[in-house]
Amino acid sequence: MFAPPSPGMPRALPAEHRVKLLRTAREVSFPQGTRLFEEGGRADRFWVIRTGTIELDMHVPGRRAAVIERLNHNELVGWSWLYSPHVWHLGAEAATPVRAYEFDAAAVHALSKEDPALGRDLSQWMGNVVAHRLHAARIRLLDLYGPYGAGGGS
Q1: Which residues contact 131 (CB under 8 A, 6 or more apart)?
Q2: pLDDT, mean of residues 101-105
Q3: Could you check whether the bond before residue 116 is cis, i.e. omega within 30 degrees of 0?
Q4: Secondary structure letter of residue 87 according to DSSP
Q5: Residues 6+ apart with CB under 8 A from 103
Q6: What values do phi and psi take at 115, rounded to 5?
Q7: Strand-pair partners of 132
Q8: What is the CA 52 to chain-centroid distance, rounded?
Q9: pLDDT beyond 70 at 8
Q10: Residue 147, helix vs strand vs coil
Q11: Given a cut of 80, is residue 85 above it in pLDDT?
Q12: pLDDT at residue 94 tops 60
């Protein structure tokens, strides 16, 4: 559960922290085409995908939103709830029907205060996801809008 954002990384959270975190989760489902959140909206929750695919997208003025990344089983959706100003930096849409665990940010913040080690591991996990997503966004935008071949090979 809670796989890392890329294949070579260690598990995102130790087993005991995954168990504690899951106690705060609720199971949700989204039909295909459901918008989970929009860029600039209030970030007050996050999800871990159980089944299905969610696409992260970025608003591009004068064009359709650019799909930055496709997330699947065991991947984290949403990190903006952890960092001020707590607004979404991307948008997200269910590309297929999705089942996920949903976590309320306030409950997870409280849990992190009760268990500082969990909070530290959670912050590190989220930081790794942020770094991965920034890299994916850069590559995707170069592929879409940069000079031919600019996004490949880094």
Answers
A1: none
A2: 96
A3: no
A4: B
A5: 21, 24, 25, 45, 46, 47, 48
A6: -130, 90
A7: none
A8: 14
A9: no
A10: coil
A11: yes
A12: yes
